[in-house]
Amino acid sequence: MRQINEICARYKSIDPLSREEEQVLFSQYKYYKDRLALVDLNDPECAQLEKKIERIQEKIIRANVRFVCVIARPFCYRHNVEIEDMVAEGVIGLMRALDKFEVQANTKFISYAVFWIRNHIERSVENSKMIRLNYGIIRNIEGFKRDRRRIEQMLERAVSLREAVELNEETTTKPNWGAETWDVIESTTLSLDKSYGESREEGMDTPMVERIASRQNSDPLLKAIEKEQKHMIKKLLLEALDYRERKAVEWFYGLNGKEQRTCEAIAQDFNFSRQRVSQILEIAERKILRQVRNYKISRNLIGVN
């Protein structure tokens, strides 16, 4: 409670923008974005425009983070999640709204952005419910499950994990988890135990808990994805790039199960020149870096690394 209040209080001193200030900033933002779309990537003006766009983004976001905190606070209580994570997700939604907002005389930006803020937070909570249980907690759950099997044999009836922990006299330190956390654990345990797929050769009949652990330890790309927040990076290929850019990046870097290819091989598939493929890759990489930078801005603005 105290941490949530401290985080939210941090932004109360930042004054919100007036409607007139918003209109000026959004007019500049739209002009610079439209201009950037016409400028060659190698033109020095491109970097200047990107800096101007970034400064406007930061100013608008800082002025609205206080509202993100108000929206994020209930999720922290209901879902036992960190306030910093929820505010960061809300800021990403805020940035999404920033790109879609059309200035109107009687509409404040935050009124439009509320949907996007709440949507990003809700999706983050839903997508990370299973991952929210870190591996240390998962190991505890595995022990609780062994205790539950033993107690069920003794009592000759089914018991919940929470009941098994309470009935187990050998457990000296019982977890101080609330009802909401236990509900998440009970529902998540089914997903952690469930095997996916039918073929052992495909390696898909391994319980999800083991797949999470082995995946995190073996694949450098997935480690990087974890660090930058998995679902955000996955969305880059789906939302930031068009079809040709996405396919070119997947083939060139061997992503998403694709076999790695050279620019010449990609050019043959697309019926383009090698130079055109290189240009597509350069544009795609710049888009991805811009999205990652935007995400880092959202984390830095609220003091999260």
UniProtKB/TrEMBL annotation:
Protein name listed in UniProt: RNA polymerase sigma-70 domain-containing protein
Species of provenance: Alteromonas australica
Residues spanning the membrane: none
Keyword terms, alphabetized: DNA-binding, Sigma factor, Transcription, Transcription regulation
PANTHER family: RNA POLYMERASE SIGMA FACTOR RPO, RNA POLYMERASE SIGMA FACTOR SIGD, CHLOROPLASTIC
Molecular-function annotations in GO: DNA binding; sigma factor activity
Pfam families: Sigma70_r2, Sigma70_r4
GO biological process per UniProt: DNA-templated transcription initiation
Segments forming domain RNA polymerase sigma-70 region: 61-124, 237-287
